[in-house]
Amino acid sequence: MVFHMPSFVTYMLNEVISLKLYISADMEGISGIIDPSYIDPDRGKNYERGRRLMTHDVNAVIEAAVEFGATEILVADSHYKMSNLLIEELHPQATLLCGSPRNFSMMEGLDSSFDAALFVGYHARHGIPGVLSHTMSGVIKNLYVNGQVVGEFGFNAIYAALCGVPVCFVSGDDQIAQEAIELCPSISTAIVKRAVSRTSAACLSLSASARELKEKTKQALTSVPLLTPLGVKVPLELAIEFAHTGQAEMAAIVPGTEYRVGTTHVTFQAQDQYELYKVMRAMINLAGTVEFC
Ligand SMILES: [Zn+2]
Q1: Which of 107, 156, 176, 254 is 20 to 30 A removed from 78 (C-alpha atoms)?
Q2: For residue 7, what pLDDT band results from cuts at 50, 70 and 90?
Q3: 224/226 Cα distance (integer angstroms)
Q4: CA torsion through residues 150, 27, 163, 259, sign
């Protein structure tokens, strides 16, 4: 691991001169969101409420970052079709990256010029009893990088690390907070709800969650000069365990993948984070075309 000194950040007597931040915003870990009715743009009867709640949480983080001294903030809308945040209500200091497809999906636009990444509204990985827990799409049972099981948090943190950017903050329920700390012990976590089941949670009021998000954002930004991006070995071994063999067979169409017939695991050796992300997307999109009957 290499000590990370932000490229053009100058901390003087705790005063930040310049700070460039990347926010990846998902929806399942947003304040007050507890079931699919809030996050499905096609059929969700609470979807418009979900969009306002998502904008509320993202704005709280941006507001705190601006108060701290951030000068440039890129927000990547990172849920489903990636067009959920309400630009009409977005904090004026941020730029919104929205819409799909995007080569690097939830991490599009991140490069080494950013000082830190913040993950807002994230959720626990598949198989963990967190609110709306899953990994990327409904076809993935387990996702591994270099033998370690990861969810969206871990996969995206690895991508950020290979871009030379540490992840300093995550918000969501208590389960994603735990998952994030296991991988990045120094991360600041804003817990806006406690999971009761996959579709039930004890949620903070919006004013209380805004306070929590702002306080933990400032704590995270204070820690940035001391953070190191995750240590990750390259080349990267990507492995996906699918729910059934039909999905694995489709994913194995991607050139360069390895698949042992009769299993549900498909593997691939990726040369860098860009290949890792694109091949993962290609595999799950192909697997998603298989009807289960
Ligand atoms: Zn997600």
Answers
A1: 254
A2: very low
A3: 5
A4: positive
CA 58 / ligand 1 centre spacing (Å):
15
CA 165 to centroid of chain Cα atoms: 14
Q: Which of 4, 123, 126, 134 is catalytic?
A: 134
Sign of CA dihedral 141, 136, 6, 226: negative
Q: Are strands 148-150 and 11-12 parallel, antiparallel or unpaired?
A: unpaired
Pick among 3.40.50.1820, 3.40.50.720, 3.20.170.30, 3.30.1360.130: CATH of 236-287 = 3.30.1360.130
Task: Note the pLDDT tens digit of each residue in 126-160.
Answer: 999 899 999 999 899 999 999 999 999 999 999 99
Cα radius of gyration (the chain): 18
- Residue 265 identity (one-letter amino acid): H
Q: Is the whole model's pTM more than 0.90, yes or no?
A: yes
Cα 252 from Cα 55, distance rounded (Å): 38
Q: What is the distance in A from the centroid of ligand 1 to the CA of 135?
A: 7
Across 153-273, the runs of DSSP E, i.e. the strands, are: 167-173, 188-197, 200-203, 236-242, 258-259, 265-270
Task: Give the architecture-level CATH label for domain 15-138+152-226.
Answer: 3-Layer(aba) Sandwich (3.40)
Amino acid type, 90: L
Give the start-to-end residue ranges of the domains of the chain. 15-138+152-226, 236-287
Q: 14-18, 35-39, 218-222 — which is least confidently predicted?
A: 14-18
91 is catalytic: no
Sign of CA dihedral 107, 110, 111, 112: negative
